[in-house]
Design brief:
Elements: H1 2-34, H2 37-49, H3 53-72, H4 74-77, H5 83-99, H6 103-111, H7 117-125, E1 137-142, E2 148-156, E3 159-168, H8 173-176, E4 179-188, E5 193-198, E6 201-210, E7 214-222, E8 238-244
Antiparallel strand pairs: 1-2, 1-8, 2-3, 3-4, 5-6, 6-7, 7-8
Helix pairs in contact: 1-3, 2-3, 3-5, 5-6, 6-7
Length: 246
């Protein structure tokens, strides 16, 4: 009995040490990432002023992602970030994409803060979206920490192949990684609506044209008791806007 008790104590100590190490490791990565938020902003502005818009967009994307992540983990990060700073970062990404001639990518970044006056002004500066008969392309929906869920539509013979890739970012998801979800379905070329089923989960996808924001897919998910085969908390429902034609 004494040996079993000692072994239990040793095991508990190892588990406790591993947990403590994981906490220390997370806090260290968090503080390192958060310490770079201002650097991302400064480097992005410098590159933008030099008209290196693709590189600027990458810096501003990192700024937007880490600013929101640091705000969500403010008690541990020790870095103070405001909602306004996140809004500015999102808009700077959008401005960079506008300069790159990618107005739909710019549009979805501005729409992350659709109620702000800055975003509303920038949205009005974009050209009217082009509506194509061809549904092929990449459609996105905003996710946490500056990330996106994706629906990719490709043409195969006489039908469209539709692929969904979705994520769920927990409060520590930018470091530990997200939960994942994916499905594929097909739709006739002449159709504008597709369906996907998994157990008692039902997902409906409807292709629509929005004169203000462009082509989109409205996704409805009625998952019942099923998780749709997705990772925990991954959800497909919402509005996905087309950002790329192919």
């Amino acid at each position: 009995m004494i040996k079993i008790s000692q072994l239990s104590m040793i095991t508990a100590t190892v588990i406790l040490s591993s947990s403590s190490f994981a906490e220390d490791s997370f806090e260290q990565e968090l503080q390192q990432g958060c310490s770079k938020v201002k650097q991302y902003a400064q480097t992005g502005k410098k590159l933008y002023d030099q008209k290196q818009y693709a590189q600027a967009a990458k810096q501003f994307e990192d700024q937007a992602a880490w600013a929101q992540f640091c705000l969500m983990n403010a008690d541990e990060s020790g870095i103070q970030v405001s909602d306004r700073e996140i809004e500015i970062a999102n808009n700077n990404v959008g401005l960079s994409y506008a300069k790159l001639g990618k107005p739909q990518w710019a549009r979805v970044w501005f729409l992350r803060d659709a109620e702000s006056k800055t975003s509303q002004y920038n949205l009005k500066q974009l050209p009217k979206p082009k509506i194509a008969a061809d549904l092929q392309g990449t459609y996105v929906r905003a996710n946490g920490f500056g990330q996106w869920d994706y629906i990719t539509v490709t043409k195969q013979q006489h039908q469209y192949r539709i692929n969904f890739e979705g994520y769920y970012f927990g409060i520590r998801g930018l470091i530990y990684g997200p939960n994942l979800g994916e499905f594929d379905t097909n739709m006739p070329i002449t159709a504008k609506q597709a369906n996907y089923r998994y157990e008692d989960c039902q997902i409906k996808l409807q292709f629509l044209n929005d004169p203000i924001n462009g082509q989109k897919i409205e996704v409805e998910q009625n998952n019942g008791e099923s998780s749709c085969g997705f990772g925990h908390n991954v959800y497909a429902g919402g509005t996905f806007y087309k950002v790329e034609s192919k």
